[in-house]
Amino acid sequence: MATTVFTWEGKTRQGAVQKGEIAANNKEDVLALLRKQNIQPINVSAKPKELKLSFGAPKVKDKDIVIFTRQLATMIDAGLPLVQCLDILGSQTENKTLAKTVNQVRSDVESGATFADALKKHPKIFDNLYCNMVAAGEAGGILDTILGRLAAFMEKFAKIKGQIKSAMIYPSVILFVAVSVVSLLMVVVVPMLANIFVEAKMQLPFPTRVVMAVSNFMKSWGGLVLLFVIIGFFVGLSQFRKTEKGQRMTDAIALKIPVAGSLIQRVAVAKFTRTLGTLLTSGVPILEGLLIVSRTAGNKVVEDAILATRQSVSEGKTLADPLGRAKVFPTMVVSMISVGEATGALDNMLNKIADFYDDEVDSAVAALTSMLEPMLMIFLGITVGFVIVAMYMPIFQMGAAAG
To answer: What are the sequence ranges of the domains in the chain?
Structure first.
């Protein structure tokens, strides 16, 4: 049932008049909540809906979930009841989609559902990792501690995602500028000079003929066809990746790309070790933890390796041996996991590996950025320089002939 925002006015036991807003399923729920707070209702009515122009519900970002989780952990640690915490957060959360979801979760918890079960009804916002860790926290009576770990976990990976996105901005801008400049030269500048050469009826050098042929191709339907071919390629690739075979094939290729493949592998290792370490520390069984980690791997090849490892562990074998046979995780990682298993400190060892690979990801991002920037600048310089030289060669010949 969808929740509605009600405005209310009531008196406290001391006779003071108070006003406020409450999100609830119906008016009776609002009256019951007010009486629980020792407030005598005077007036309760549904809040009029505001007319707003919007394009769909606002998306819930990782940052919104982190803030919500951190605030909830702080409130529970301070001793506030869970329902009251959710009520407060639902009323003050700026993201309307998340606020609506939190109010629905609060309503389910009030109805007798566990916090984890209420969260599982919203898989687009709270994933398996989140719900299972909350379930472990509820079972162990350490929900505030688990929520703090969850917030720290999400903050670390939000930082990694932010670094990768930031590193890609400059190369993307350079590539866009390069394509725009070359397209402008080919469509506008080259045809103007080509008309002069055609009127002069002179023998054109080979580089000039190549540039003019490319220019004529881009001015005609050929340029539009090329654009549609490029768009079609990416659309087809996107559809191909939606199939299990296509995702597995493209993910395997991605791991073998020079420099970028190394970055993808390091991110996968950091995510695997950080997630599994956090789950084990929070009391989630290893088989359940491996299943959750496989679903959040982000790479089909890594997911297959984790699922094969889970099957091996379920048969009583160690975690390190099947990881080593998968050839996805570096030898150092497998060796450290083996030591963690032998010493009974697997969760601590996994977190240490994650800390190490967080730094490795930073180094890989820096290396990729430092390689892409000069390569794109060289590409831009060579392309533009070739076009300019090719179009000025006939002009030099005309000047020499006139002399």
So the answer is: 4-46, 62-154, 161-403
Q: What is the mean pLDDT of residues 125-141?
A: 82
Min mean pLDDT across 83-97, 341-355, 389-403 is at 389-403
CA distances from 48 to 1, 5, 21, 45, 342 (A): 18, 9, 12, 9, 63
Q: State how far the Cα of 175 lies from the Cα of 183, in Å rounded to an integer.
A: 12
Tallying the residues shown for the chain, one arrives at 403
Superfamily of domain covering 161-403:
Type II secretion system (T2SS), domain F (1.20.81.30)
CA dihedral for 107, 108, 114, 120, sign (positive or negative): negative
Q: State residue 55's pLDDT score.
A: 47
- Torsion angle in degrees (nearest 10) through CA of 363, 369, 370, 373: 180
Q: Would you say 384 and 376 are in contact if contact means Cβ atoms under 8 Å apart?
A: no
The CATH number of domain 62-154, selected from 3.40.190.10, 2.10.10.90, 1.20.81.30, 3.40.50.300: 1.20.81.30
Q: Phi and psi at residue 9, in whole multiples of 5°? A: -140, 135
Residue 141: CB atoms within 10 A of its CB come to 8
Residues 8 and 43: beta-carbon distance below 8 Å = yes
Query: What tokens appear for 57 in the block?
Result: 């519900």
Cα 88 from Cα 84, distance rounded (Å) = 6
Tell me the helices (H) and strands (E) count for the chain, helix number first: 17, 3
The conformation of residue 111, written as its DSSP 8-state character, comes to T
23 bridge partner residues: 5
Q: Give the separation between CA 132 and CA 334, rounded to whole angstroms.
A: 26
- pLDDT value at residue 403: 59
| pTM for the full predicted model | 0.63
Query: How many beta carbons lie within 10 A of that of residue 60, not counting itself?
Result: 20
Beta-bridged to residue 18, according to DSSP, are: 10
CA distance 161 to 150: 17
User: Residue 79's pLDDT is what?
Assistant: 85
